[in-house]
Structure formats: structure tokens, C-alpha cells
């Protein structure tokens, strides 16, 4: 979910608001639980593991900042066999949180690689019929591709571009490729003439990048008028950077190795 240099693949506009059914379509394995519950939000924000884990940590941070509440579980035969705990409660792989007019899709773990395409296609079908009017997808972008001082790039579906709301935002350059869940969902939403965009924050490709997550969170806060403080993310980034500098200095102080290998 993002862009990398040098590799081939790296790096709702509806006539009426519709409530989702369970599953998303007769052939879909995606089920929304509790069954029959409706999503009242106007915008869905989603992020996934990828470059710098930017999407995942941005969404997780925003959920905590706006004190969103869990409203749905997303079940699927393609969901991984993983469970964890959060705030003394079981946390399942895919959940939807909501606060006011915003909903957040929290994806703790990716599906198995062989199931990824099918799962995210089915998830896209549910999103289109969920009743939301707009989808925001957060991902990471290889920092080595940066050509100016901007902290991010955006990618818009045609339906989103027609709104003219992001005409002054830096758009991802032609020829760059997006892969992973963000790409799958963008393609699906584009083909269904649905208003959606990807916010790709420039990120370190070698590790988790809290600074990239802060950039994405700041964009979302400005667009949706949220009161958030990205100070914890910036402090986390600074601490991580100090640790990396310390490790680099230790390696430098050790000098060249005298070991001989055959």
C-alpha cells in the first residue's frame, strides 16, 4: 500500500443513501455484525498496514483522539485467525468505529496474501452500499520519491475530482503505481463512480513512521474539522529517530570488523 522506486508494482456517489445488508451481496463472504445495524456516518476513513504502517497507525490514532465507539464487526471467511485484546475487550481483525459523521475502518492484520484480492473486493462492495458519501484511504509513500516540501500526495477518483474540493492539493505524479488494499479499493470505487481519495503520506520505508502518521492525521483533522493533537506521534517519531541514531553511532564506534568468513 504505497510506492517504492524501481519495482513494477511498488511504491459513494449514489442516487440515494443505502444501508448495507449482511452479507454485502449474495455471493460475498463479508458479513456485518450485528446484522441489520445501519451505518449513519457520511464519511468512512480507512488505513492498512503498508509503508511505515502509516494507514494503520493514522486510523488507530484518530479513533483514540475523537473517542470513536465500535459499532460493527466485519466478519469474513477470508479473515485471518487472529485475536487480541484492547481496553480489556476482545479486538477482532476488522472493526468499524464511529464518531458523529465519521466512521473508521480499523484493520489490525491483513488477510492472507492469497485471499487479499477477494476480501478487499468484497469489502469495497459493502462500502459502496453502506450509505456513506465519501471514502478516505490512508497509505504511505516512499520518502525517496519526494520532489518538494509537501508531506503527502493525493489520488482522487473521478467522482471525487468533480467536486473540486481538492483542486489545490498535490496530486500523485503520473506513472507512479499504488499496490495493496488502497489500490484494490481505489479501483473498485473508481469503477463504481464513487467519491473517494487516497491520502499518501511520505514515509520511511524501513520502519514504522509516526511522523508520516502525524501528517495524515493532520490532513484528516483539517478536512473534517477534528480537534486532535499529533504531539504524541511527533514525540514517538523523535524518540525512534534518537534510537536509530544511537544504534548507527554504536556501529560506527565499533569500527570495521576483523572477522574472516569463508
Helix content: 25-40%
The fourth-level CATH homologous superfamily is PAC-like subunit
Structural domain count:
1
Mean pLDDT: 83
- Lateral arrangement of strands in the main beta sheet: 1-3-6-7-2-8-10-9
- Spatial separation of the terminal alpha carbons: 39 Å
Q: Report the radius of gyration as a whole number of Å.
A: 19 Å
Question: What are the key terms here?
Answer:
262 residues, alpha/beta, Rossmann fold, 8-stranded mixed sheet, two-stranded antiparallel sheet, 10 strands, globular, disordered C terminus
Structure summary:
With 262 residues, this protein is α/β, with parallel strands linked by helices.
Structure write-up:
The chain is built from six helices and ten strands, in the order ββαβββββαββααβαα. The protein has a single domain, classed as PAC-like subunit (Rossmann fold, 3-Layer(aba) Sandwich), CATH 3.40.50. The longest helix has 24 residues. The N and C termini lie far apart (39 Å). It has an eight-stranded mixed beta sheet, sandwiched between helices. The N terminus and C terminus are likely disordered. Helices cover 30% and strands 21% of the residues. Helix 1 packs across helix 5 and helix 5 packs antiparallel against helix 6. With 262 residues, it is an alpha/beta fold.
Amino acid at each position: 500500500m504505497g510506492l517504492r522506486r524501481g519495482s513494477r508494482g511498488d511504491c459513494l456517489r449514489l442516487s440515494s443513501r443505502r444501508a448495507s445488508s449482511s452479507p454485502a451481496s449474495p455471493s460475498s463472504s463479508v458479513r456485518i455484525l450485528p446484522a441489520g445495524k445501519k451505518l449513519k456516518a457520511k464519511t468512512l476513513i480507512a488505513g492498512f498496514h503498508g509503508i511505515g504502517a502509516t494507514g494503520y497507525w493514522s486510523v488507530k490514532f484518530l479513533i483514540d483522539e475523537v473517542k470513536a465507539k465500535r459499532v460493527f464487526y466485519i466478519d469474513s471467511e477470508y479473515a485471518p485467525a487472529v485475536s487480541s485484546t484492547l481496553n480489556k475487550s476482545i479486538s477482532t481483525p476488522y472493526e468499524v468505529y464511529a464518531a458523529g459523521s465519521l466512521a473508521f475502518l480499523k484493520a489490525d492484520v491483513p488477510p492472507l496474501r492469497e485471499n487479499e484480492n477477494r476480501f478487499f473486493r468484497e469489502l469495497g462492495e459493502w462500502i459502496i452500499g453502506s450509505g456513506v458519501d465519501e471514502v478516505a484511504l490512508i497509505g504511505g509513500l516512499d520518502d525517496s520519491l519526494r520532489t518538494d516540501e509537501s508531506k503527502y500526495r493525493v489520488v482522487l477518483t473521478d467522482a471525487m475530482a468533480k467536486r473540486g474540493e481538492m483542486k489545490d492539493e498535490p496530486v500523485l505524479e503520473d506513472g507512479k503505481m499504488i499496490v495493496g488494499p488502497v489500490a484494490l479499493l481505489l479501483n473498485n470505487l473508481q469503477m463504481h463512480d464513487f467519491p473517494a481519495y487516497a491520502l499518501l503520506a511520505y514515509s520511511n520505508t524501513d520502519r514504522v513512521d509516526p511522523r508520516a502518521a502525524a501528517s495524515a492525521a493532520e490532513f484528516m483533522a483539517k478536512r473534517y474539522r477534528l480537534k486532535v493533537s499529533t504531539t504524541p506521534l511527533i514525540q514517538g517519531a523523535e524518540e525512534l529517530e534518537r534510537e536509530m541514531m544511537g544504534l548507527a553511532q554504536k556501529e560506527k564506534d565499533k569500527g570495521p570488523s576483523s572477522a574472516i568468513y569463508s
